[in-house]
Every structure is written in structure tokens, then in C-alpha cells.
Amino acid sequence: MTDYKPFPDEFLWGGATAANQCEGAYDVDGRGLANVDVVPIGEDRFPIIAGKKKMFDFEDGYFYPAKESIDFYNHYKEDIALLGEMGFKTYRMSIAWSRIFPKGDELVPNEAGLQFYENVFKECRKHGIEPLVTITHFDCPMYLIEEYGGWRNRKLIEFYERLVTVLFTRFKGLVKYWLTFNEINMILHAPFMGAGLYFEEGENVEQVKYQAAHHELVASAIATKVAHEIDPENKVGCMLAAGQYYPNTAHPADYWAAMSEDRENYFFIDVQARGEYPNYAKKKFERLGLDIEMTEEDLKVLKEHTVDFVSFSYYSSRVASGDPAVNEKTAGNIFASLKNPYLEASEWGWQIDPLGLRITLNTIWDRYQKPMFIVENGLGAVDTPDENGYVEDDYRIDYLREHVKAMNATINEDGVELLGYTTWGCIDLVSAGTGEMKKRYGFIYVDRDNDGNGTLKRSKKKSFDWYKKVIASNGTDID
After folding, report:
1. Tens of pLDDT, residues 213-242
2. For a disulfide at 329, which of 291, 336, 406, 440, Cβ 3.0-4.6 Å?
3. Per UniProt, what is one Pfam family of this protein (predicted)?
């Protein structure tokens, strides 16, 4: 057994889920319809989440996995008890906006939705778990999309401010850690999922995406301001879909391509963490002929209300080339990149690179010098349970162990400030990218398949006890 240095005493070990991927109960207790509800499994899923195919309601001939998902809405006590048994210090989860404001533009919130989340947070506290709450995790009421055009419309800033004011007020003392938008850079890659954007024929897609991004960035800064005003103990973070780009070769054109790809992703966090638009982004808008409407008050609020910490998801590093002839891409990921011949890949083609996590952590630390939080990391795999629902998922343990080692080195050898680590999909849930259930990440197996069949029975995998041991030892017992 190797001797590993412990993580910091206050390190927050835990796991993460999203409302639309686990709650279900899409039409219960006054909840309104959301964009994430009307995205089906199957070949039309990606064109819909990319804003290229219009689907604003349920249609015949499709299966919509978010309708029921794993029914966390009715199983939350059982599920949180299992997380507590593992020793979780924190549980990252998200709010379904349309549970609080079913249409999105109401003046008065839905009490049943607020009460549900209050019950969930109290249940977490009962088990010694600190909630880490994503306010918007690919979640926008459909009414705001149909009536206002989603985040392209400046009015959504006002609606979002109303939402966060209600949340910060109601849950003061129950929730301390907040994230404004999940994977905010996803707006460039899956704009209907990320910002409720559907593009009409002939629209300037880049103009719409970056205008919507500006509205989200201003809304995030306003949320940070309101959070600190309502409770100075609140800590607000941004959230990035991260993964360092490597140049394909030592050719300078490849290095420039990698740097440009990184900038596209870090642009959002540059604004949220530093408080202003970077020059490279302003020049990009000029080159593309984009006219992003922004007021002096927008720039002031961005400057004065930067985030307290930077959080991100990390699944893989990426590769870029300046040579258009080099184009063999990885499979299965919204962030497909060039293949890296030095790395193995998951069953969905996501390349596995634990050292890339250390590189990404150091890059973000060097860039911002703000505390960081890894809020998604995990291995999506097909799990085959025995008759008791038990899964021997050594492949998942191996993946997580190597990433825990990388975090340990980053903290203890590089001196990076890391607040915590929440593995993605700590209980099996619906995949955001593909809509599948068979792409499982959890320590807890849920009996449900891609077609919605199954008992929803929960059972522990081998990784459940492994992660429990990791947390109990504060990262020193990982073999």
C-alpha cells in the first residue's frame, strides 16, 4: 500500500447530480415544462439540443427520459441516506427553475417547489451533508423559450434575478455554496440545452449565442451580488466544462490552435472571475462582425461582482491541430476533439487522462488564483449487475483512483487551492449528452433501462465501499 498525504481537513468529498437527469416528476406539484424535458433519446437528440431541430413539446414516437428519470423526487430520502452512508461531506445538485416559477416570469413562486427543495436540503443536513446547489443546470422553462426566445432576450436577466433572490432568501442557512450556470461554455456547443436557443432560418447564430452568453454572464454577476447581500456567508462559483487542449504536434500552428480552443472555453470564466471581457474576445467579435449589446451598468456589475471560486467538470483532455487535414475526432462527446494516440478511451470514446486533470487544475489556478472545486468527474460505462443488483465496477474504481492521485499531487506538490471533489452521477441517472441510462456513472445502481423499464430499485456497487473508504481516510486510503 502506497502512503498518500491527506487532503486538507475541510476538503469537501461528495458526488453530483442534476435535477433534469434524476428528479423526474416533470408535471407534479405545479412544475412547469422545461427545455430539458422535451429532449428525447435517439438520433434527433443532438440536433434538438444544438438548436437546429425544433421540439418545444412532447411528440408521438419519441421517448423522453427526463419525464421520470430515476424518480429522485419520490426517492430523495432513500438516496440521500445512501450518500450519507458513504460519508459524503457535500452533495452537488441543481434546482429545476420550472418547479419554482413554472412559466418563469411569474411574480410569486410555487410554494410546493420551494418546499420540496427545503425538504431535500434539510435531509442533507440531517446526514451531515453540505448542499452545493447549481441554480441553472441546463434548465430553462419552456414558456420563457416560446414567449421570449430563451436567453437571447434580455428580460431573462430580470426573471433569473427574481429566481435567485427567492432561493437565497428561502434557503439562507441551509445552503452556503452556489453555482450560477452549469458548464456555461456549453452555450456554444449545445445552445438549446445551455440557453434555450432555437435558431430560425437565416439567423446569425454566433451573434445570438454570444448575446445570450452576455445575458447569462450579467445574470451570474447579479446573482453573486444578491447572494452576498442576503447572506455574507454565501460562496458563489462559476462552472466550466474544462479539459486542457494539447497541441497535436510541436508545430507552432498546432500550439496556436490549442491556445485558441482554450480561450474559447475560458472566455466565460475570464469574465466571471476577472470581471471584464478579455481583449481577445473583443477582437473576435470585431472579426465576426458581432454587435453584442451591453450597457455601462452591465460592465459595472460584471467588474464589481466576480465569483468567489471557480468550479468545473473534467472528463478528458483534448487535442487541437492547425492543419485542417488532421481531423480524426474522438467519439461520443459534445466536446469531441482530435484523438490522442497516447490515451485509452471509455466505451463512449472519451479519452482517459488523469494527468490532464492536474494540468487543467494548474492552468486554471495560474489563470485566476481563485479557489477551485471539481464538481464533475467520472466514468460512464455499461454496468452488468448480478441478481442482487451488485456491480463489480473495478474499471470505475481504477478511473477514479487515478484522478484522486492527480488531485492529491496538485494540492500537496503544486500548492493549488482545491475546495472539494464531487464525482459525476454518484447515483445512476440519465445521460445529458445521449439520454441513455445504460451509460452509468454511479456508486449506486438504479434498475432502469434506456426505454424506461425497471423497478427503480437502488443497490450498492463495489465502488460504493471504495469511495466510502476514500472519504473516511481523507484521500489516504485509495488502493
Report:
1. 999 999 999 999 999 999 999 999 999 999
2. 336
3. Glyco_hydro_1
